[in-house]
Amino acid sequence: MRRFPAALLVALASAASASAQIGGAGGRPTFPAWSMSYAVPAGWQLAQQTARVHTLLTAAGAQGPVIYVGPGMHQSFNDAGADLNKGFNALGLSGMPTAQPTSMTIGGMQAMTADYLGQNQMGMQYQARVVSVLTPHGTGFLVLGLAPAHQPGEMRSVVDQLAQSLHVTGPPRPDPQAVAALR
């Protein structure tokens, strides 16, 4: 597996932040610098884009389920797990797996799913579904779905559906302006 220089990582993060394209329900939001796109599930909309993370919500807004989607420099599932831990910490969540992770393939790429029961700092419980996909380019794609424990609904199938829609067109492409700024 290839290692990527730190300057490339910074350039990719900058490019992803500046140029991720937003799409509505049924659209195909993209992470151009990462050469990735996905389909927004029916009943969901892309509500926010922060750095390299897209946030999808239903009509219930922030009070209902939420899905976080993002690419990363994941050469292994351990790398993806480290990003997932950062995400849980940023959201103020702690949790434990409810079952062993399951291996699968998505579009010919290695993938892994895991389910968690977690809680936030106020003690509210959440069901979480995670799908991690490793691309052949030394990158990965994480999908984290969260729903209040009392209303998990179809979170599991929606997260899986979104991950199944992943389309990777090639290796990451750094933004030339961001690379020039690093020189």
Short characterization:
The chain is of the alpha+beta class. It contains four helices and eleven strands; from the N terminus they run αβββββαβββββαβα.
3D structure, described in words:
Mean pLDDT is 83; it is low at 1-24. 25% of the residues lie in helices and 34% in strands. It contains four helices and eleven strands, in the order αβββββαβββββαβα. α1 packs across α4.
Helicity, as a percent range: 10-25%
Helix-strand pattern: HEEEEEHEEEEEHEH
Number of helices: 4
The termini sit apart by: 26 Å
Q: In percent, how much strand structure appears in the residues? A: 25-35%
Average the pLDDT over all residues and give the rounded result: 83
Cα-atom radius of gyration: 16 Å
Decide which structural class fits the backbone. alpha+beta
The shape, in one word, is globular
> Strand count, sense and closure of the main sheet?
8 strands, antiparallel
Uncertain regions spanning at least 5 consecutive residues? 1-24
Tally the beta strands.
Answer: 11
